[in-house]
Specification:
Layout lengths: L1 E6 L2 H11 L6 E6 L2 H4 L4 E3 L7 H11 L3 E4 L2 H5 L2 H7 L4 E2 L3 H8 L1 H10 L7 E4 L2 H8 L8 E5 L8 E4 L2 H12 L11 E5 L5 E8 L4 E3 L4 E2 L2 E3 L3 E4 L4 E4 L6 H21 L6 E10 L2 E8 L6 H5 L3 E3 L1 H10 L8 E2 L4 E7 L16 H5 L4 E5 L2 E4 L2 E4 L3 E8 L3 H12 L15 H12 L1
Parallel strand pairs: 1-2, 1-4, 2-3, 4-5
Antiparallel strand pairs: 6-9, 7-8, 7-9, 10-11, 10-16, 12-15, 13-14, 15-20, 16-17, 18-19, 20-24, 21-24, 22-23
Helix pairs in contact: 6-7, 8-9
């Protein structure tokens, strides 16, 4: 099987690495890839823009790709799956209509309301006055969540502690248009309370296979302080997510979502990412994504020891059949190394040292995100530069290995959180004490 992976981040590096190791896969090409993916012996990169669906289709045809796996949300929102379907080529990822679960938060919330899927109370606002009224008074209380409706590269959500911050978020989205047309409509939500968990299920439209749940760290600083980012690290499997909770999420959230989409003519083939808040009243959906999460994918995909390619292929065909995978339960911890100043302004072009030394730590691999090859050296090219992932027999061992490897990598201005995985230790202690 020849596979084309679309994207150029650490998630795509994890996908390339996992697929290249699959015995069912002969060749992997990644577009556009990055400096780390280019170093993989079993893969190569192709400089094609992910925002150009027709160029991706042409590449898939030229490479004889039996399956194309899409990493980022943008091409899915643009309808790349529809284009591939019309051309008779298999692609793992939902159609434009089904991808509205992520590309429009207003659609997603209305869909959940129609199908009785548990989520936070909300109001969809199409003008500034309506939004300002929604965040005033005691309708939702404080903190309150303000979300830009469309895709905003992970930066369109504000958890406002008071009315002044909420009003500023509304104006930034709807008046200043910081997120462009993505902020023309906003969703105002109540702020749910509880730990967050990321759950993934691969679906052929009717059936699905679950992956281990993970937990990520969105804030830039230790202790979940500072502004939100695309994710500063993750760990999995989540100690908070047992078999009973998985069955409940599949029954109350995943099944009604897939059934509802199919009933509305939006059959879903791909991976469904369910961002959950584990509240005192049970699991509630914070958001849906229509692709593997980043940085969660970097810790979840290495757990699939066998069968990944055949499961993705079966889902793309709309027929999982007897396709199954073997998934390990060993703890994985991923620590993101970011450019200084991220998620604000940061410099690029900083040489990166110690990559091979880090990869020599037992159980460790380094997934590249914002990297490029310049003059024979690997340099920084983005805000999130690397995800250093470690596998261990226990969480303490995985955490120690990850930070050992992080300490061997150097580039000017690098920033990491030092507490990735501590929530896993705490949850394990609490459950053990119970």
């Amino acid at each position: 099987m020849n596979v084309l992976v679309v994207g150029g981040g650490a998630r795509e590096h994890a996908l390339v690495r996992a697929l290249a190791a699959d015995t069912a896969v002969d060749r992997v090409v990644c577009a556009p890839g990055n400096a780390g993916i280019a170093r993989e012996a079993a893969a190569r990169v192709a400089p094609v823009d992910v925002s150009d669906p027709r160029a991706l289709l042409a590449l898939a045809a030229a490479e004889g790709a039996d399956l194309t796996v899409v990493g980022p949300e943008l091409p899915l929102a643009q309808g790349v799956a529809d284009l591939f379907g019309e051309a008779g080529r298999l692609l793992f990822g939902p159609t434009r209509a089904a991808a509205a679960l992520e590309s429009s938060k207003a659609f997603a919330k209305a869909f959940m309301a129609r199908h009785d899927i548990p989520t936070a109370r909300f109001e969809v606002c199409t003008d500034e006055r309506q939004a300002l009224d929604a965040v005033a008074g005691d309708r939702f209380g404080f903190p309150v969540v303000v979300k830009a409706d469309g895709l905003a590269a992970g930066k369109g959500v504000t958890v406002a502690p008071d009315q002044a911050v909420a009003e500023a978020a509304v104006r930034e989205a709807m008046v200043v248009r910081r997120f462009g047309e993505a902020g023309a409509t906003v969703v105002i939500e109540e702020c749910l309370d509880g730990p967050e968990v990321s759950f993934f299920a691969v679906s052929d439209g009717r059936r699905c296979l679950a992956l281990p749940a993970a937990q990520d760290h969105k804030r830039i600083f230790d202790g979940d302080a500072g502004p939100n980012t695309g994710g500063m690290g993750a760990f999995g499997p989540s100690p908070l997510f047992d078999a009973e909770l998985e069955a409940r999420v599949m029954r109350e959230i995943v099944a009604p979502t897939l059934d509802g989409l199919r009933a509305e003519g939006r059959e879903y083939r791909g991976v469904l990412y369910v961002g959950l808040m584990l509240t005192a009243d049970g699991p509630r959906v914070i958001e849906f994504n229509v692709r593997f999460g980043d940085p969660e994918a970097q810790v979840i995909l290495p757990m699939v020891e066998r069968g990944l390619a055949r499961v993705l292929l079966g889902a793309a065909r709309g027929e999982l059949g007897d396709a199954r995978w073997r998934v390990a339960a060993d703890p994985h911890v991923g620590v993101v190394m970011a450019s200084g100043g991220y998620p604000g302004t940061y410099e690029t072009g900083r040489p990166i040292g110690g990559l091979d030394d880090a990869a020599a730590v037992p159980g460790v691999y380094v997934a590249h995100a914002g990297t490029a090859l310049e003059g024979g050296r690997i340099v920084t090219s983005g805000g999130r530069v690397l995800t250093v992932v470690a596998r261990g027999a226990s969480y303490p061992q995985a955490i120690a290995r990850a930070y050992d490897a992080v300490g061997r990598i150097s580039f000017d201005g690098s920033h990491v959180r030092t507490d990735i995985g501590q929530k896993a230790l705490l949850a394990t202690e609490v459950r053990g004490g119970a």
